[in-house]
Design a protein that fits this description.
Elements (H helix, E strand, L loop, with lengths): L9 H11 L8 E3 L1 H7 L2 E6 L9 H10 L3 H6 L1 E4 L3 H12 L4 E5 L5 H9 L3 E4 L4 H15 L2 E2 L6 H17 L5 E5 L4 H13 L4 E7 L4 H6 L25 H11 L2 E5 L1 H15 L5 H12 L7 E6 L6 H14 L3 E9 L4 H11 L3 E8 L9 E9 L3 H11 L5 E2 L1
Parallel strand pairs: 2-10, 3-4, 3-6, 4-5, 7-8, 7-10, 8-9
Antiparallel strand pairs: 1-2, 11-13, 11-14, 12-13
Helix pairs in contact: 1-3, 1-8, 3-5, 3-8, 5-6, 8-9, 9-11, 12-13, 12-14
Bound molecules: pyridoxal-5'-phosphate (PLP).
């Protein structure tokens, strides 16, 4: 692909739309009252997290696989992916009755590995990061003659993702700012190209993870720093370590108006917000746009559209994120107290907690911890509370019945 011309035309995006529209969902764009209240101007969300396969990636993959010649199809396809592209390629190949081999890093979320296998692809887990999986897939391409389906650096992939841009302009013609996460940059390139072709005045803002900010660094003419070998970002879908200069020069630098980065904490909070207020599940990368809108000064206009580009997230990660969100809001509290180790001590504390409407979720009793003197015991509670004031009230009610707070 590196040799190919990456350039696309608006016609290529319309042609992609024709090819894929019977198999992908026209995802809805809806006004978000809660986001608008928080921002002070109108915010719309496009629910691409509800797309077939749980992310936009099916669009590009389907456009690519269905454009292959019969002899190419006979060779089978190979792809490297942290997960969403994997599912897109696997399902597209299944639909076209083409063999698919997908290399995923060992760190890929379980849900993405399982779904890819469920679409009939052969999954090879290799390497700690997307980049290592990519190298391996390119070796297998040479060795076995498979057709490589690049996750972003391919005009057919970019045109497929660009169909989202057409939909945005149909669904919200008066939009003035569109926020799109960036991994390799295929998504934002297609969308920005489509949108700018229709209305050059619409601002397109890109969002990266602060742990993998390569494209942002290129954009700001900063040195591209090396990312940690194993990144732990929850935004695994946009964790591309080496930015592509060609993507940058062909698209990002031309059509993207601004790029910002967001932290995992900001993304977690956006995921929690989406669950609580919008009743929708976004994965880390899928919520990055909203995290940027809430935490960076983007100079947005009156009508902003945020693309929720994916929803594939492990349930146990959702549960951790929601727990942290509850702790932040004072609705879940860890409280450790030290009391005398006497019969009835625990009962008297739980009575106080009950009288103060603190629901006990967990209790742990510890008599051997080093911080304790003899005849002391430490009790750790996890409590359901209603907010910071409630926590203060509980602490003050407990004060006279404990030796100290740990
Ligand atoms: C949910 C999600 N958002 C955003 C991206 C970034 O897309 P691109 O690599 O085309 O920039 C990906 C890529 O896999 C993704 O899965």
């Amino acid at each position: 692909v590196e040799k190919n011309d990456l350039k696309i035309s608006l016609e290529a995006i319309f042609s992609a739309k024709q090819k894929i529209s019977s198999k992908v969902k026209l995802t809805s764009t809806e006004f978000s009252q809660a986001s608008s209240d928080r921002l002070g101007s109108d915010v719309y969300l496009k629910f691409e997290n509800t797309q077939v396969t749980g992310s936009f990636k099916i669009r590009g993959a389907l456009n690519k696989v269905s454009s292959l010649s019969d002899s190419e199809k006979a060779k089978g396809v190979i792809a490297a992916s942290a997960g969403n592209h994997a599912q897109g390629v696997a399902l597209s190949a299944q639909a076209a009755k083409v063999k698919a081999v997908i290399v995923m890093p060992v760190t890929a979320p379980l849900i993405k590995v399982q779904s890819t296998r469920a679409f009939g692809a052969e999954v090879i887990l290799h390497g700690d990061s997307y980049d290592e999986a990519y190298e391996h897939a390119r070796e297998l391409e040479k060795e076995k003659g498979y057709i490589f389906v690049h996750p972003f650096q391919d005009p057919l992939i970019i045109a497929g993702q660009g169909t989202i841009g057409l939909e945005i302009m149909d669904q919200l013609p008066e939009v003035d700012t569109v926020i799109v996460p960036i991994g390799g940059g295929g998504l934002i390139s297609g969308i920005a190209f489509a949108i700018k072709s229709k209305n050059p005045k619409v601002k397109v803002i890109g969002v990266q993870s602060s742990q993998t900010p390569g494209m942002s660094q290129l954009y700001h003419q900063e040195p591209v720093t090396e990312c940690a070998k194993r990144t732990t970002t929850i935004a695994d879908g946009i964790a591309v370590k080496k930015p592509s200069k060609q993507m940058f020069e062909t698209y990002i630098q031309k059509y993207v108006d601004q790029i910002v980065t967001v932290t995992d904490d900001e993304i977690s909070e956006a995921i929690t917000f989406l669950v609580e207020k919008e009743k929708t599940i976004a994965e880390g990368s899928g919520a990055a746009g909203l995290a940027a809108l809430f935490n960076r000064d983007l100079g947005v206009g009156q009508k902003t559209l945020v693309l929720l580009c994916g929803g594939n997230i492990d349930l146990n990660l959702v549960s951790q994120i929601l727990d942290r969100g509850l702790i932040r809001k004072g609705r879940l509290t860890h409280l450790s107290v030290i009391t005398q180790d006497l019969p009835g001590a625990l009962a008297s504390l739980t009575k106080i907690l009950g009288d103060n409407r603190a629901n006990i979720l967990e209790v742990h009793h510890d008599r051997v911890s080093r911080e304790l003197f003899l005849k002391e015991t430490k009790i750790d509670f996890v409590l359901e509370t209603s907010g910071p004031d409630h926590i203060l009230q509980i602490k003050s009610a407990l004060k006279d019945s404990v030796l100290r707070f740990a």
